[in-house]
Amino acid sequence: MKVFFTLVFLTISTFASAPIFEHIYKFELKKDERASVQIKELGYEDKVQNFDFYWTLFDNTNIIVHSKFRKFPRQFVLSLRRNLDWASQTLIPDYQNPHIDRARLILEFSDYKKGIATFTIYIEDKDSRLMVEFLDPRKMSLKNPPQNNQIVPMIDLNQPQTTPLTRN
């Protein structure tokens, strides 16, 4: 009986494998320094989408990360503690086979030293449907981050938000 379970375990473990990432890149960012990953889906090269992110606050183990993809802002609390150090973003939606057909980005908080946070970007794209470019602020100036992904409606609190009621 032990031999049977051992054979079953070995058979299952041969098919279990770690994910394979087609693109891996390491960013080192200061506070409020913006980084971006430019993503183009093959066949739709005219539609460029950016995954933009930056961090704002760090205490001994936790960091606050703000990101934006497809004009949708998100906020993560990542930690140096085990299994709390990453966040996932789907780049191409899961269609028919969710675990085979997906393309996703994983943002991992790797380290923090002397005011510089280290993030590692992993992109899983089994079908090679993406063209990826990493826009590192340390290697190129991102004075104006990509414009197609930066629009967020703002409320000007200095202006009245409603018109006052008047009697006629």
Blueprint (SSEs and pairs):
Layout: H1 2-15, E1 23-29, E2 35-41, E3 48-58, E4 62-69, E5 72-79, E6 86-92, E7 103-113, E8 116-125, E9 130-135
Antiparallel strand pairs: 1-8, 2-3, 2-9, 3-4, 4-5, 6-7, 7-8
In brief:
This protein has 168 residues and is mainly beta.
Architecture overview:
- This is Exporting protein.
- Residues 1-18 form the signal peptide.
- Residues 158-168 have a biased composition (Polar residues).
- The chain has 168 residues and is mainly beta.
- Helix content is 8%, strand content 45%.
- It has one helix spanning 2-15; strands spanning 23-29, 35-41, 48-58, 62-69, 72-79, 86-92, 103-113, 116-125, 130-135.
- The chain has one helix and nine strands, in the order H-E-E-E-E-E-E-E-E-E.
- It starts with a helix and ends in a 33-residue tail after the last strand.
- The protein has one domain.
- Strand 2 and strand 3 form a beta hairpin.
**First CA to last CA: what distance?**
91 Å
The biggest sheet, with number of strands, parallel, antiparallel or mixed sense and barrel status, is: 5 strands, antiparallel
Helix content: under 10%
Q: Are there runs of 5+ residues with pLDDT below 50, and where?
A: none
The string of secondary-structure elements, in order, is HEEEEEEEEE
Beta-strand portion reads: 35-45%
Principal-axes geometry comes out as extended
How do the strands line up in the largest sheet? 5-4-3-2-9
Structural class: mainly beta
Instruction: Report mean pLDDT, rounded to a whole number.
Output: 79
Kindly state the number of beta strands. Answer: 9
The radius of gyration computed from the alpha-carbon positions, rounded to a whole number of angstroms, is 21 Å
Number of domains: 1
Helical element count? 1
Protein name: Exporting protein
Keywords: Signal
Region (Disordered): 146-168
Biased composition (Polar residues): 158-168
